[in-house]
Amino acid sequence: MTVSTDEHSAADVIRVALVDDQVLVRSGFKMLIDSQPDLTVIAEAGSGREALQSPAILSADVILMDVRMPEMDGIEATEKLLSLPSVHGRPTPPRIVVLTTFDHDEYAFAAIQAGASGFLLKDVQPEDLLSGIRTVHTGNAVIAPSTTRRLLEHVSPLLSRNQACSDGVAELVSMLTPREYDVFVKVAEGKSNPEIAEELFLSMATVKTHVGRILSKLNARDRVHVVVIAYQAGVVSP
Fold first, then answer.
1. Do the beta carbons of residue 185 and residue 235 sit within 8 Å?
2. Which keywords label this protein (predicted)?
3. Structural domain ending residue among the three candidates 92, 110, 142
4. Other CB atoms within 10 Å distance of the CB of residue 237
């Protein structure tokens, strides 16, 4: 892909890697992504194991990771990739977006727990896929309120299996102030900052401050992780 230096320098272009065992899926995503002046596909892999062995994959800014693959699935690959010393040595680790088919992939929840910055359904609209890549690159999470609730309903049995984990997150949640707790619940419901501001009669700046403090107190990576914690703690339920 050639990028005009008038619009985007090499440093501005978001480097994307595709990890999916279906060649046609990778080809379609590559064609779409490479059509954008600020995005480029730098590497592809057909399995999680292949991805971990590829320096090019590990150097990407954003990795689109399929959940169901042979040899090593997307959950294990996500967890192992984010634990690599070479990844920890980077100023900004690669952001991973899980690609899933909702009807079958209850594993998407576990992938988010493993460190993914969000998930998108494989039938996502092209503009939403592109927006999702840009969103996670800025450090935010890709999470759609409608699919969040449906997915968590599908995997809710997983949330009660580890009582020690639930007790631990409940203790963290207890450290929130009453107003932080209100914002926490809204985030867990999939509400955006503007929606939270409107519903709680707060300014956008105040909401952003509360969200930042919530992430810090809960040791949460992003808003997706906040949702996971909320369900683990029993603050909201499917």
1. yes
2. DNA-binding, Phosphoprotein, Transcription, Transcription regulation
3. 142
4. 10
B/e letters for 183-207, b = 16+ CB within 10 Å, e = fewer, are: bbbbbbbbbebeebbeebebeeebb
pTM of this structure = 0.69
pLDDT tens for 136-169 read 888 777 765 455 555 555 555 555 555 555 667 8
Q: Which two tokens stand for residue 90?
A: 């980077």
How far is the CA of 12 from the CAs of 56, 91, 121, 134, 199, in angstroms? 18, 16, 27, 11, 36
Name the 3-class secondary structure at 98: strand
Domain of residue 120: give its range. 14-142
Q: Please give the tally of structural domains in the chain.
A: 2
**What's the CA gap between 70 and 87, in Å, rounded?**
24
Neighbours of 50 (CB within 10 A): 18
* Dist CA 89 CA 202 (whole Å): 38
How many whole angstroms separate alpha carbon 141 and alpha carbon 138? 9
In a domain, 152, yes or no: no
